[in-house]
């Protein structure tokens, strides 16, 4: 369970420091590099999960694969996509708005996450890490067509 929390924590950190260039490219309908970046990210994650799974026979391989996938996407968003580099800046008024309005979104996101991911947590407690790892890998494989459809719909819209 600690590995899953570790994964979600650092995956969120990596996603938080992704460049805004990918959103800008998608907004201008220049999807070639964004699609290449997404495919590369998925290939890296799959390669790590298979190779580490074979080497270690542990669910920790899935955690490391997810982290490497998120790290790859973050690095590619900064260095693979054209455009100006992003810099970290704090705007006090925006920060205040995020924390005053965002607390409702924060709590609703927590409840949504618990509601949609509780099956894996419950299965992990009952079946252990290995069963949970196999379950999440199966969920990821089953969700590929839906994710592809969502990606195409998002890109078109």
Characterise this structure.
With 157 residues, the protein is mainly alpha-helical. The chain has helices spanning 2-16, 21-27, 31-56, 60-79, 92-142, 144-156.
Summarize the structure.
The protein is mostly helical and 157 residues long.
Q: Which stretches are low in confidence, meaning pLDDT under 50 for 5 or more residues running?
A: none
Characterize the biggest β-sheet. Answer: none
Gap from first CA to last CA: 37 Å
Quick one: how many beta strands?
0
Count of runs of 4 or more consecutive helical residues: 6
Helix/strand class: mainly alpha
Q: Which range best describes the helical content: under 10%, 10-25%, 25-40%, 40-55%, 55-70% or over 70%?
A: over 70%
Radius of gyration: 17 Å
* Overall average residue pLDDT: 81
Percentage of β-strand residues: under 5%
Layout of helices and strands:
Elements: H1 2-16, H2 21-27, H3 31-56, H4 60-79, H5 92-142, H6 144-156
Helix pairs in contact: 1-4, 3-4
């Amino acid at each position: 369970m600690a590995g899953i929390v570790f994964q979600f924590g650092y995956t969120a950190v990596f996603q938080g420091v992704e460049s805004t260039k990918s959103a800008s490219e998608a907004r201008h309908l220049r999807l070639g590099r964004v699609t290449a970046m997404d495919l590369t990210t998925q290939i890296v994650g799959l390669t790590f999960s298979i190779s580490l799974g074979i080497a270690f026979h542990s669910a920790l391989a899935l955690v490391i694969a997810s982290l490497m996938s998120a790290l790859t996407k973050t690095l590619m968003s900064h260095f693979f996509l054209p455009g100006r580099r992003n810099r970290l800046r704090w705007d006090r008024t925006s920060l205040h708005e995020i924390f005053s309005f965002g607390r409702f979104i924060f709590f609703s996101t927590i409840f949504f996450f618990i509601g949609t991911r509780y099956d894996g947590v419950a299965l992990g407690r009952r079946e252990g890490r290995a069963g949970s790892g196999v379950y999440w890998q199966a969920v990821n494989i089953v969700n590929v067509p839906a994710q592809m459809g969502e990606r195409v719909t998002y890109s078109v819209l």
